[in-house]
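User: Quick sanity check before I run a bigger batch. Here is a single chain. Can you write out its predicted 3D structure?
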Amino acid sequence: MAHMQRETGTSLSDINMVPFIDVVLVLLIIFMITAPILQSGIEVDVPKTKTVKELTQARRVITIDRGQRIYLDDKPVNIHELAKQILAASREAKNQVVYVRCDETVPFGSWATVVDALRQGGIQNISVVTQPLSERPQTQ
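Assistant: Done. Predicted structure follows.
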């Protein structure tokens, strides 16, 4: 009988791309889900209005959360140090634009205190961040 030789000692020289593509797609999905959450780490329900201006440039954002804690660009800050920290990062105090995000459940007095602290520090260009009426989900 004739004996046939089989070649079983071949090496795999190609890289299997399927596991790599699977990992990349899973990472892409994870980043797509978490990216909107990372926009601002502080949960705030801003007031809803009919007129909203889109922000085109990165600006300094002050956030007042439900617990009336104050944050400057997602970092907690003392109200007495707020204006100093903003002015320390900017050369022009008069042209400094500051946006205030305030939860709609925060009393007006807390918001007014923050605005007053900014004005006493020399910051006059203060804007309020709101949300368009159509974006907010209706809760009952």
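The CA atoms of residues 46 and 103 lie 5 Å apart.

User: Great, the batch can go ahead then.
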